[in-house]
Amino acid sequence: MRSNSRTARILVFVVLLMLSCAYLMPIYVMVTTSLKSIEEINRGTYLLPSGDPQWANYGEVLLGSERFRSQMIPRLVNSTIIAVTVTALAAFFGGLGGYYLSRSKSTFTRVLFVLVGIALYLPYQVVIIPLSVLMARTGLSQSYGGLIFSYLILNVPLACVLMGTFFLGIPRELEEAAEVDGASKVQTFFRIIAPISLPAYASVAIIIFTQVWNEFFLALALSARETQTVQVVMAEAKGTTLVLYNLQMAAALISVAVPLFFFLLLGRYFIRGILAGALKG
Fold this sequence. Notes:
The protein has 281 residues and is mostly helical. Helix content is 77%, strand content 0%.
């Protein structure tokens, strides 16, 4: 029995090691490529580190140059403003909507819950024409407000479903005790339900922030030059005659740094919130 157990552990360790190498290999190649010159890249030695690291590649990407004409810093600011605003508003309204959907027992609420769930599967291409018309008629086209409003329309349903699923597992006795003490529905939500739902809010925030940060289609269609996001600049970095892989990889690593930091900041609550919603819902 002990021999079989030891063999199983070794097998699991080997499999996990292989999967980790397969997962980390693209990241390793991105890092090494971002520090190489064009001559080193043309040699095809992608797995070998650079003998003379070109840290100036990151400066070219951030500040712009003749080879990389789009400055990354303003686009990082744009993406941060849009993603943070959408995440905060979607989590707030999604929490309120999810609480209502999880506590109301009417037929209308059940149908609405199903419709909100269906809305999660709508691709962005389906709503791009109505969104473009709406943005043009409201004067929000190619502005921060237009992009934020568009992302809210697409991400609030997701926040409602995730938060509603979590709220289903919260004992109603807590709310009944608060009502006995004279608390209103609003006071019960903000003073009792919301504080104990912070892991769920953190999970929703990570998911929505990552989606908005990495979204490309709406950012390309509804943004102006001044409101472009990181993903649009990444697409422009490809070029038409010469592909500068070192600058592309440097730009990709910079764009990944912000959501990675956001995940590390709230990551300890992420698994806790997801598991709580899955097990209690």
